[in-house]
């Protein structure tokens, strides 16, 4: 219940003052510490630092996915959890999509 209270407090849990951003792989990798921990789940990036002390599995479990795509790990442990609802106040943004490079194809049609 303390986590729910915190999410409803109006405190900025993203660290971005309510702004959503497009997150590159390089940017995601920078956020890999307990006090600055972003995790990607199904293409959405969350700042889970504020959630660390509330995670039932402990900080070490969250840190396994720090600065990376934690979708597979999340699904292995608790696919049934509604993370979208639980972490909605921690949403940083979406992962940037890398442009496809077409080898041997002209740039014009």
Automatic annotation (TrEMBL):
Family: Belongs to the cytochrome b5 family.
Name under which the protein is recorded: Cytochrome b5 reductase 4
Domain of life: Eukaryota
Keyword Metal-binding carried by entry: yes
PANTHER family named in the record: CYTOCHROME B5 REDUCTASE 4, CYTOCHROME B5 REDUCTASE 4 FAMILY MEMBER
Pfam family membership, one: Cyt-b5
Keywords: Heme, Iron, Metal-binding
Domain Cytochrome b5 heme-binding: 20-96
Biological process, per Gene Ontology: superoxide metabolic process
A Gene Ontology cellular-component term: endoplasmic reticulum
UniProt keyword Metal-binding, yes or no: yes
Molecular function via GO: cytochrome-b5 reductase activity, acting on NAD(P)H; heme binding; metal ion binding
């Amino acid at each position: 219940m303390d986590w729910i209270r915190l999410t409803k407090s109006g405190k900025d849990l993203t660290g971005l003052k309510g702004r959503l951003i497009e997150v590159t792989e390089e940017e995601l990798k920078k956020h890999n510490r307990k006090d600055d921990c972003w995790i990607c789940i199904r293409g959405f990036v969350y700042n889970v630092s504020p959630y660390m002390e509330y995670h039932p599995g402990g900080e070490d479990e969250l840190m396994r996915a720090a600065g990376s795509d934690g979708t597979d790990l999340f699904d292995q442990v608790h696919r049934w959890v509604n993370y979208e609802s639980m972490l909605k106040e921690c949403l940083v943004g979406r992962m940037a999509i890398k442009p496809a490079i077409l080898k041997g194809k002209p740039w014009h049609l």
